[in-house]
Amino acid sequence: MFALGDLSLTIKGGVQHGLWGGAIVNLGTQWHHETFLPDIISCRLPGCFAMTEMGHGSDVMSVETTITYLPATSEFDVHSPTASATKAYIGNAAEHGRAAAVFGQLWVDGTCHGVHTIVVPIRDEAGQAMPGVTLGDHGHKGGLLGVDNGTISFDHVRVPRTHLLNRYGGINEDGVYSSPIANPNARFFTMVGTLVRGRICVAAGAVQATRKALTIATTYGLRRSQFRAPGLGEEILLLDYRAHQRKLLPNIARAYAYGFSINEIAQQLQRLHDVDVPEPRQARELETRAAGLKAVLSRWANDTIQVCREACGGAGYMSDAGITLLRQDTDVFATFEGDNAVLLQLVAKGMLQDYARTWGEMDTVDLARHMARMVGEGFMERTAARTVIDRLVQTAQRTPDAELLTDRGWQVSMFEARERHIVEALARRMRRAKGLGDQEAFDVVNACQPHMLKAGIVHTDRIILEAFIAGIDAVEDPAVKLLLGKLCDLFVLDNLLDDATWFLEHNRMPNSRVNQLRQAVNGLCAELRSHAQLLIDGFGIPRAWIHSTLMGED
Amino acid sequence: MFALGDLSLTIKGGVQHGLWGGAIVNLGTQWHHETFLPDIISCRLPGCFAMTEMGHGSDVMSVETTITYLPATSEFDVHSPTASATKAYIGNAAEHGRAAAVFGQLWVDGTCHGVHTIVVPIRDEAGQAMPGVTLGDHGHKGGLLGVDNGTISFDHVRVPRTHLLNRYGGINEDGVYSSPIANPNARFFTMVGTLVRGRICVAAGAVQATRKALTIATTYGLRRSQFRAPGLGEEILLLDYRAHQRKLLPNIARAYAYGFSINEIAQQLQRLHDVDVPEPRQARELETRAAGLKAVLSRWANDTIQVCREACGGAGYMSDAGITLLRQDTDVFATFEGDNAVLLQLVAKGMLQDYARTWGEMDTVDLARHMARMVGEGFMERTAARTVIDRLVQTAQRTPDAELLTDRGWQVSMFEARERHIVEALARRMRRAKGLGDQEAFDVVNACQPHMLKAGIVHTDRIILEAFIAGIDAVEDPAVKLLLGKLCDLFVLDNLLDDATWFLEHNRMPNSRVNQLRQAVNGLCAELRSHAQLLIDGFGIPRAWIHSTLMGED
Predict the structure, then answer these.
(1) A308 has pLDDT over 50
(2) pLDDT over 50 at B359, yes or no
(3) Structure ipTM
(4) Is-contact B505 A500, C-beta < 8 A?
(5) Contact assignment for A306 to B331 by CB distance below 8 Å
(6) Which of A507, B339, B371, B483 holds its CA 20 to 30 A away from the CA of B120?
(7) Taking a C-beta distance cutoff of 8 angstroms, is the pair A406, A492 a contact?
(8) CA of B441 to nearest chain A CA: how many angstroms apart?
(9) How far is CA B308 from the centre of its chain?
(10) 3-state DSSP of A138-196
(11) Which residues of chain A make contact with B365, given a CB cutoff of 8 A?
């Protein structure tokens, strides 16, 4: 909802309630909840999520900030030992934040227990930096100018023992450290797993922002005409040009697909939230899926809002058209809450592992070295609408060739076959690292990087398709079901056409299929063009929320 | 040079000297040159190029502004008859422009002679709008905030007869219209042909801006490390990751390729400028090539500067990293000086026509209807280094399969075969319009639009490759030649890999070639990574001109 209004507000809300509040909820215990949450919810206590440092963004495990226990006073000393330990790009830090959930290495009696989080006051009520705290402002950015990103560093700042968020590890009154999770790696990944909400919100915000841009560009394409054809009288509407349809309609189809995938993961998150102790495997699955959706949907948002800008010509470049700000604000979605390249590798890693036992406990090189057995058939479970999809796939085996392209079961089986093939090939390549020396093992894994990114994408594409199918299955109105079915066809066939090199290379489709796909995509674009107004109306964005000179009169 | 400094300044300069001055030079005659040029060159007379209107951007032939001859006073009446006739997005209009080259329909004694251009004063020396002239400001834009884009409309503004730029059509003292070009369509296309300089400058500026972004991102990739591999000690430099190499190195290769193509077309422009009356065919070829380069290079600039932004993570999103401004400023390059989709169709049209006789005289539907004969073998002439390339292609026929990928002759023949196939297939499809009714003929051409865009791109890719080969051939230093050869390999193989679907679909390569291409691209990335510093130094951008916090100490 926020993202349909203003993305800076979305991120300010995300920082305050999702990250800062989320850290208290997920990493803290009863005292923290009672002490901090009411004021966080009401915004009386604006706060920061101080994880990233100048020196370490993606590699959170290597943050340098220290949280050292001082038994004499039952306090912690929070300190930035180097310039690269400075907390960086932190939302709410430059102006509004009064406290921060600070990630650092916990030291107790000379032993480091790895990354933990502690609540540190950073500003007094007058807005002045607390003693020992240095605050900076990153100044102008490429977008999100309503968010006060800044730096924080600490010069031996003392905070009470109780401020350590101790759900997964803390110090008792005798100064002894204990944790319910013995393995430090598993503990770390459990703690950073709290990022899952942030990633889901970024993915959802990306979809909403892009739907808004698509609404503006499609409306413009239905109003703006240019050039005449001989004998046809009226100038031709932009959206009647095939090339223009190809720019917008497959992206409208994706906007629907991605919306269903967001609905699905939000429900999955809620189900996990509803149980006291979630099953670790389910928690890991959710994290993998959130990582994949965040990467794929934010990439699409960046690309598609740009397409929308260009589809409006020079008019789209004027700020009052309402598109360039969306583009600038979503830009950073590709790298914050996890760099997309890192997240897709996380997905690939998840696909290769037996989640329950080894997830997160090995880095990728070790994983490659120890990948003793092939991931079996079981690695790929259907994630939504299992019964429906099982039936569709079985039926497809009897579908005549001429009708294959719009056969949902065939579509699913193409996505599944691609994913299975890519993961199996990746596992085979990575197993070559077994028994190699450090440099050689790294080289093997490094050479697989583009393969890993591809694996992460095709896995996510399949998850999205399954969510789309489940969404359509739940619709009762036959006309809506029919139209969503056409959108699903366009989503799938456009995806297969984009990736035709892979299918041809691996003999998964005959050469002639490419032109069939192209014709089918063009045909669906032409068919859906007549429903274009309905399709953008279906995004459900209130007209009054879209501030754009390109929308015409109400 | 300007583009390495500031893109707003580049565009201000382009408007003043390229467009406004260019209109006087190319469309005016001696009196205009003597009267206006000295003050244009010195910037004492800032001016506008007032072509685009609210209602008509790409379709310049349909502008609505009227230029009506008034015989009683030997004046012209310049008028905006509708709101959509308002001149829009005009650089220099909102603030600095004192005069404008205004495009409008010329009416003489009740007859319309089509689009002509006239000099109209729009502001007095105090900066106030002249009587009858209404000036507006587009306000904030997605970028180029140093350019004052605005609107201009005219309420029966009178200007002297002499102000009509009359090189291609004017009124004598007796009020009689005459033109050296009898055919109104040919006259129109000759006049708008003056845009060719603007397009070349946009393409060149796009390359320079992208080289600057690549310099910043590559420098960062050589300084910034993240994550450790087991047993390897130091953290790993970003540019040592394969996925990171794949982001940057193929784009560095393109930056070299595109630089050579800009050098080539600049020389071609100069050659044409050096003769009094250029051969029409050569002029048309230059226009087609400029259109293609502008479209391909501006697309690449947009995409690649974004890649550079993301390759620097959150740090790249800070404005003082120096990348987001480049991204925002180049954004509009995709649609100004001709929308890329329109320009690529212009290229395709050029490929299909016998330039000298029919270019510009038919719209695309008519062209399709009248395409009586196939474009022959002669349509594809080598554009640079003919002798060298002829020899390379001949030699390639004896190259063993294992060495094909890095055989320059084979590379050229792949680009040529693709272009020939695509153009021939396009011609066949478009000939189906022959004898059809208006709607059906439009439908045939409209269905070919994506095909036309593809034709425009592959033609331009071949032109670029030829310029690259000519550039390498002219280098004497063997080490430089060798390194440029590697870059050329990467440019070609990355292009073929990107487009592998087309080659597989049309049986132009075996399936196994795709993996060979992938391996070769990865191998070249790994090899060129060790020269990364040298390669960005080779862009020749003075360190002092790059204002970026990511460049480290000098």
Answers:
(1) yes
(2) no
(3) 0.95
(4) yes
(5) yes
(6) B339
(7) no
(8) 9
(9) 21
(10) CCCECCCCCCCCEEEEECCEEEEHHHECCCCCEECCCCCEECCCCCHHHHHHHHHHHHH
(11) 229-230
Paired strand residues for A50: A102
Residue percentage of chain B with pLDDT more than 90: 80
Euclidean distance between CA atoms A458 and A414, whole angstroms: 11
Q: Which domains does chain A have, with CATH numbers?
A: 2-180 (2.40.110.10), 190-228+236-340 (1.20.140.10)
Place of tokens 């305050």: A16
Interchain CB contact of B363 with A (< 8 Å): yes
pLDDT at A358 over 50: no
Max CA separation in chain A (angstroms): 92
Q: Are strands A66-70 and B150-154 parallel, antiparallel or unpaired?
A: unpaired
Residues with Cβ within 8 Å of A222's Cβ and at least 6 positions away in sequence, in order, are A237, A238, A239, A532, A533
Among A62, A88, A230, beta carbon nearest to B363: A230
B387-394 contact pairs (CB < 8 A, 24+)? B388/B469, B388/B470, B388/B473, B389/B466, B389/B469, B392/B469
Single out the catalytic residue among B287, B337, B419, B466: B337
Least confident of A360-374, B26-40, B322-336, B339-353: A360-374
What residues of chain A, 431 to 490, have a C-beta less than 8 Å from chain B? 437-439, 441-442, 445-447, 449-450, 453
| Rounded Cα gap, residues B356 and B378, in angstroms | 14
* B320-330 pLDDT tens trace: 999 999 999 99
List the 15-44 stretch of B: residues with Cβ below 8 A of A. Answer: none
Binding residues of B, as ranges, are 52, 91
Q: Pairing relation of β-strands B99-108 and B66-70?
A: parallel
Q: Which of B244, B246, B313 comes nearest A335 by C-beta? A: B313
Query: Which DSSP symbol is given to B151?
Result: E
Locate the chain B residue with the closest alpha carbon to A225: B55
Residue matched to tokens 């865009």: B453
> What tokens were used for A178?
């204990």
